[in-house]
Amino acid sequence: MTVTRNTVHNGLFPFAFQAAETAGERSAWRLTRTLFALGALVVAGLAGAGLGAAEAEAAKAASIIMDARTGEVLHEQDADAIAHPASLTKMMTLYLTFDALEDGRLSLDQSLPVSSWAESMSPTKLGLRAGSSLKVENAILGLVTKSANDAAVVLAEALGGTESRFAEMMTRKARELGMRHTVYRNASGLPNMEQVTTARDYAILSRALMSDHAKYYPYFSRRNFVYGGRTLPNHNRLMSRYEGMDGIKTGYTVASGFNLAASAVRDGRRLVGVVLGGKSPVSRDNRMAALLDQAFGKPNRGREDGALVASAERLSKEEPDAEGDDEDEEDDTAAKVGPKRATVQLASLATAATAKAAGKAAEKWGIQVGAFATRAAGQKALTQANKQAPFLLRGAKTAVLETKNGKDTVYRARMVGMDEKTARKACSELNRHGLRCVAVSPGEKL
């Protein structure tokens, strides 16, 4: 028998999912044993088919891009392959929280009790203590930015009585929304072999969050959250460098790989995308950016559209070895590994006059803090960047460069005249404050 990637996804994984669906009649250890046996069969089959390590890794990846309004699928790869959601789970926890806010079972300023079970959550959390309380809005922001597992349990217990009963509510809601292959066992996404989903199911949930809870969806674009005297940044780093992106959620466990559900608006059109099983946060983000760029370009073949901001591609050689929630591990990876190489490509060329005027300044590294519809907006972004990192940017020259993006005019806000180290450090500082920034190399065309 020849084992291919399709054999794995269409044959073995649906069987594993069926086992998860009937888990109520079986003990957890029998299900776990079954899944591990299936995993061994998959590995053996791939080896027997002569697939290399890279192809075996590719067999775990899944992605999908949908039009948010119509549901049209613009791209899909293994979109129905069974995977683990990790912290994308919190999207459903928030969906049910928004349901409760809409029908009056909760209010944003309501204080919820913190149990000892909530306090015990790890590794990513707000640090809540049993016997204390947490306001509903702070719990929402804790999930969106810090991906706080303790806050997820606080919401789950408030709505379901216990986290396990809330997980049953989550699974029922998934079925109502059309998420046919999703099963929840907890509210946070911490490792559980029975907690499974697909890329297609999470694209459905992404659309549902926007259509059913448009009032609350803006929470997902929150750049940071101050709690307990600490500023907690949103760990969806792609929001800082992909124009039009305003959410939604990242996730990571060892079993899941690096996951991302995202949404972006360009020229009045909104797309949602899901990537499951990335090898690193950087490669996952780059994959998402490339897929969205491609999908946005599909209806406009022949036009010189392209992205409104630079897209940075970085190579990462390590991934975290800790299991649990994704966000802190991603931060540590970025800090310890750093980019091995960076290339920045701009979708549009500047006019000849602008390029000539900026040519001398571009002989050194610089940063771009966004692309805007007006020159005034670009200048405002530069002023804000200067306020956030005045020491690093004190010697830089500011420039708002007028470029053509098809029939439209775009104004790129840049600071130039610094070395590579300073440019990258400045972007890191600005991203930390929730501002867009990407480093620009000396040889890059404007």
UniProtKB/TrEMBL annotation:
Compositional bias per record (Acidic residues), positions renumbered to this chain: 320-332
Stretches assigned to coiled coil: none
Superkingdom, natural source: Bacteria
Any single GO BP term: proteolysis
A GO molecular-function descriptor: serine-type D-Ala-D-Ala carboxypeptidase activity
Residue spans crossing the bilayer: 35-54
Xref: InterPro entries: Beta-lactam/transpept-like, Peptidase_S11, Peptidase_S11_N, SPOR-like_dom, SPOR-like_sf
Xref: SUPFAM superfamilies: beta-lactamase/transpeptidase-like
Domain SPOR: 362-440
Keyword hit for Cell wall biogenesis/degradation: yes
Active site: 87, 90, 147
Disordered as annotated region, ranges: 311-339
Cross-referenced Pfam families: Peptidase_S11 (PF00768), SPOR (PF05036)
Binding site for substrate: 249
Keywords, in A-Z order: Carboxypeptidase, Cell shape, Cell wall biogenesis/degradation, Hydrolase, Membrane, Peptidoglycan synthesis, Protease, Signal, Transmembrane, Transmembrane helix
Segments forming domain Peptidase S11 D-alanyl-D-alanine carboxypeptidase A N-terminal: 57-279
Family (UniProt): Belongs to the peptidase S11 family.
Protein name: D-alanyl-D-alanine carboxypeptidase
Species for this entry: Azospirillum griseum
